Amino acid sequence: RCEFLQSKKSSEEIKKYIETYSGFVGVVGRHFTCSLIKENLSTATGDLVLNIFEDEGVRLDSFKTWPAEARVEATALAKAGFFYTGEGDKVQCFNCAGCLHKWEEGEDPREGHAKWFPDPPAISRLSHPAPSACSGTFPASLQTVSRLSLGTLRQDMTLVESQRLQEAKNLTEQLTKAYNNRSFSKLSSFGNSNHLAIDLKLLYGDLSVVSKDINDQPIQQLFFHEILANLNSTIVLEGEAGSGKTAFLRKIALLWASGCCPILSRFKFVFYLSLIHARSDQSMADIICNQPVGFVGPLTETTLRDVIQPLKNQVLFLLDDYSETNSVPQAVQELIQRNHLYQHCLVVAVRTNRTREFRKYATTTLSIAEFPLSSTLYVLKKLFSYNIDLVEQLVFQVESKKSMQTILKTPLFMVSLAAYWVQHPKGNIISDKAIFKAYLLYHLLKYSEEREHVLAMFSSCGELALTGLFKPSFDFTEYDLSEAGVDRDEAVRLGLLSKFTAQRLHPVYKFFHPLFQEFLAGRRLSELLVSDEKEKLERGLQYLQQINTFRKVAGRYNFLLAYTCSFSSKAVPQIISYLFKLIDCKESLESQSEDDEHLQHHSDLPIRMLFIDQLSSINPKLLLPVFMQYLLGFATSVAYESNTISVCAPIILQFLRGKDIHLHSFLSPRKSELHFFQDYPESLSLPSSFQIAVQGSEHKQEFNISAIGSCYSSLEMPTIDRDYAPAFTLCNDMAQKVKKEEKDIDTFLSLIRRHLPDSIMRPFVLTTGKMQLLKCTFSNISSFQEADLRNLMTLFSVSDYIELQLNNSPGFIEVIRPAIEQYKEHFKKCSLHHLNLSKTEQELLLSMSFLECLEVEEKEMPELLFSNLDKFICLEELSVSQCENCNVFDTIPDGFKNLCNMKKLLMSRMKLENSSRLAEFVKSFQDLSVFHLNCSSYFNPESLLAAISSCKKLTEIKLTGSFLRDPYLLSLAAALPNFVSLKVLDLNSQSFDDKEACEMFAYNLGVLLNLEELILPSGKGIKSAAKLVIQQCLHLTHLRCFSFITCLGDDSLLEIAKVANCGGFQQLENLLLSANHDVTEPGWRNFFRTLDNMPALKELDISRIFTHQIKASAPTVTAFVQCVSRLPGLVTISMLGWLLDAEDLKMFDIMKKEHPQARSLKLSWQWVLPLSPILQ
C-alpha cells in the first residue's frame, strides 16, 4: 500500500479509483491488486561488473590458439582460473588479473598462482563456487516481499473456485521458478560448441523496434516500456535471423517473473513457448509442459480452459522460434487464428520471410531494426570489462570506418564478435573481416553436426553473392537463387539470406548486409582461384579480369579483393600479380562510366571516388602515382595479414623497380609498406625515388581577392537576362570558401607535433639498404625540432642522391645546415622558391659541388649564388624566374659557358636589355635540349635566335611574352627545319602581323614531324594564315596539344573539324580555342556538327571573355551536346562566356549519363567576377 496515497485520499476514493482505472486495454486497477507473483527486489547497489571468464568453459575457449609446444595443458590452466592472453604462453587469472608465463614442464597452475599471487579468495572461488541464480532458489541478497495475502481474497469462495485458485497459484509458482532458472535467463547462441552466453537477468542491450502500418511502412520507433504498455491482442514481432527476438521475449518473461515490473503486473500468467520443442500433434498443455525451462507440471487442458481462458487479456503468450519449425502445432495455429475470440495477449516472433502468414491475424506489427551501436558497445564493455582497451579500439574503428557502424546490425553479430575475441585474443580482431569470420564461425559452432552441409551452403551463397556483385545486384529472386544452386529454405534457416514477403507479389532475398555479400563473394572467388578444376579456375580469373580500372580496384571491388585475400594464402600472390600488371595498362586509368550503387553501402568510399574523379579531371597523369601507391599499400597489407609475405616479396620487389614511392610524413603512413621496407632492406634501392613532403603553416601567402578584381576593373560588367544569372559567381563568395578551407588546413597542420615522426623512420635506421634518390619538399616552414632534424639526417645517410625543394620557407636552409653540410656531396637538385636567401645560405648552397639542377624563383637576385654558377661543374639544368629588377646574365660569370653538360635552360619573367650575352651562353651549349624564355620587354633577339638555330638537339622551344617582332619571325621560320627532334613549340603571347612571314612560318610547321605540343601566336598575319596552319597539322601525327586563341574565324574554326575528319588530330588530347571572339554562333554550330573524329581528346576549351558572351540557341546547344557525345575520351570542357539556361544544362546532363567518361566529365561555364552582372 502507498502511504503517501493513503495520506491524501480516503479509502473509499482509493477503492473507487482502482475500480475505474483503465490504463490498459481490458484491464482495470483491481487486476493489479491480485497478482500471484512474489516481488524480488535486488539490494545490490552500484554499477554491475561482469566477468565472462568466471565460466570455466569460456576460459577453455580462450585457449583455441594455445601454442602446441606449450608445457602446460590448457585444460589444467582453465580449471585453475586462467584464460589465454594470446601472447606466447602468457595467461591471466580471471579473478585477480595476475599474469603468469614461461611455464615449466609439469608445473601445477594452482601452485604457480598461489606462489606469485597468494590470494585465498581466488582459490576458494574455484573450489567452492558461490550459489547462483541457476539453483532455482533466490539468493540471500534478494528480499521477498509477498504481494498476495489469501486473507484479502473473498472468504465465501466455493470449493471449485478455491481449487482453481490453488491451481493458478501453483502454475504461477512453477512459471516464475522456471523463468528465474539460469538455464532460461542465460542465452547461449552457439549450442554446446561454445560456452559464451549472456545472462539476460544481468545484461541486456535495448533493441530498436518500429511499428509498421498495413503497407509495411514504418510509423514510429518504440521504446521497450512503450511496447510493454501496449501489449494487447495479437502482435507480430518480425526480425532477421539473430536480430534479438528470443532475447526480447525472454526478457519480458523474466521481468514478469521478477515481480519488479509494475507495467507487467496486469498479467496473471506469461507463457514463453519455444516452438522448436513442440510437436505438431501436441495439445497446448503438453507444449507448455515440454518446454526445456524447468516447468514440471502437471498441467491439463481442463486447467488451461478453466483457469486461463476466463482471464482473457490478463494472459500473455510469447511464441518464439515460429520460423524455425516447418510444422506448427495445431493448438498454436488455433490460438493465433482464434485469438480474436480468446482475447489473450499474444506476441509471435517471426523472421521476415514468414511475416505474411500473420498479417491477417495481427492487430499490430513490430519490426526490429538494426541493433543500436550504443547497445553493442554497452554489452561489449560489460563482457570485456577486464580489457576495456579492446572495446575502445573497436570504438575507434567504428568512428574512423563508418561502414563498421552498419555491420554490427544484429545482437548475433555482437555476440559472434565477442566469441571470436575470446577464441582469438590477439591478431586482427577488430575489423569487418573479423566480424564476418566470427559470424561464419557461429554457424559452424551452432550446426557442428551439419558442418559439411553448412560449408556447402557458404559456397553456393558465395556464388550468388559473386554473380550479384558484378551485375551489380543486392536483391535476388527465387530464379537467381536457383541459378546459383542455392537452397533457399536452407539459406534462410541458416541466416545467410533474409527473405522478404510482406507487401510483395514475389519474395525478395537479400544478404543481411551488402558488405556480408561481398565477404561471401570474396570467399567464393578465393575458392575459384585456388581450385584444381580448370573450369572453376578460369571462371575465377574471368571475374578478376573484370576488375580492370583504378576506380574498380580502389572503389567498387575494393572490399571484394581484400576479402578474397583473407581466405586463401594461395590466392594472394595471384591477385597481387594481376593488380600490378594494371599499372602498365593505359586503360586502367580511364574513368569509365560505372554504376556507383555500391557507394550507397560503403560510407567510406564516396570521398575516395570523388578524389579519383577530380584528380582525373584536373590532370589524369596524377592518377598513375596515386594508383601505384595504392597498389603497393594494398599488396603489402594483404601479404602480411595472410602471412604470405615471403611468397609475395619477390613480386613486390619486382613491382618496386623504377617506381616513385611517397613517404607521407604528416599523414599516417601505411604501416605495412614501412614494415616491408624494414624486413627487406634490399627493396630501398629498387624504386627510382622516395619522396617526402613536409607542410608547415608559417609564411603562407594569403589568397588575394583584390588582385583578381583589379584584372576586370577596366571591363564593363555584362547585362544579362535573369535566367542566365547562374553563369556568374562573385569573387567574394569564392574567396570566403577558399579562406575557410585554408583555415581548416592550418588548424589541422597546427595539430602536428612532429614533421618527421619516428614511425616512418624504422625502415631506415640501421638498414643495409640504400635509396637511389630522396626527394624532399618543405613548404611554409622555418623551424624544425631537433628530433626531426636527426631523422632527416638519417634519411640523407641512406640516400645516394638528394633533391631538395623549398617553398616559401625563409631561413630553413640554415635550420637544416648540419644535414646539408654532412651530406652536401649527395645533392643533385635544388629548387628554391621565395626564400630571400641570406649570404650564409648562398654559401651553403655553393658547397653542393655536384649539383646537376638548380631552380631559383626570387624577386631579389641571389647575387653571390649567381656570380659563382660556374662552380657547379656538373650543372645540367638551370631555371631562373621572377628576377625582374636586374639583368641576371650580367651577373653570371663567363665561366658559365664552360659547363658542357648543360641540357636545359629555362628563364621566366626576366629582364633582358641585351641578348648577346645569353646568346653566347646558348651557343656554347651544344647538347641543349630545352630552352624557355618568357620576357615581356622588347630587345633585339637576332643573336639569340641565331644561337638557338645552332642547337640541333632541341626538343622544347618556348619563346613567350611579347619580345618578338615580325622581322624575327622569318628567322625563326627559316630555322624550323633544323629542329628535327622538336616536340614542343610555344609562342604564346607573341603577336605577328606580317602575312608573308606568317605564311612561311605556317608552311615550315609541317616539317616538325615529332611535334607534340603547338601553342600558336596571335596577330593579323597569323589570322590570315590560320587555315594554312591548321592544314599543316595533317602532317603532325604526334600532336597532343593544340592551342589557337584569338585568331580564328568561322572558316578557320571549321577547318579544324575538317582536318580531324580527314585523319588529323588523332592523338590530340588538348584543344584550346579560347577568346576567339570573331567566331559567330553559327560558326560554332557548324563546327560542333562537323567535328566527328578526335578519339583521344580529353580537354576542350572554347571560353570567351564575358564582354563577348554568346547566348546559345537551342540548335547550337543541341549540336554541342551531340558533338560531346561523339568524343569518347573528353573529360574537361571549359566554355566560360556561354550563357546556358536550365534546359540547356538538363540536355547536357542527360547526355552525360551515357557518356563513356560520365563519372569525370566536367563542364565549366561560370565566370567569377568581382561584381554581379546587370540583370534585366
UniProtKB/TrEMBL annotation:
Keywords: Apoptosis, ATP-binding, Metal-binding, Nucleotide-binding, Repeat, Zinc. Pfam families: BIR, NACHT, NLRC4_HD, WHD_Nlrc4. One of its GO terms (biological process) is apoptotic process. One of its GO terms (molecular function) is ATP binding. The keyword Signal does not apply. SUPFAM superfamilies: Inhibitor of apoptosis (IAP) repeat (SSF57924), P-loop containing nucleoside triphosphate hydrolases (SSF52540), RNI-like (SSF52047). Residues 233-527 form the NACHT domain. GO terms for cellular component: IPAF inflammasome complex. InterPro entries: BIR_rpt, LRR_dom_sf, NACHT_NTPase, Naip, Nlrc4-like_WHD, NLRC4_HD, P-loop_NTPase. This is Baculoviral IAP repeat-containing protein 1. It comes from Nipponia nippon (Crested ibis).
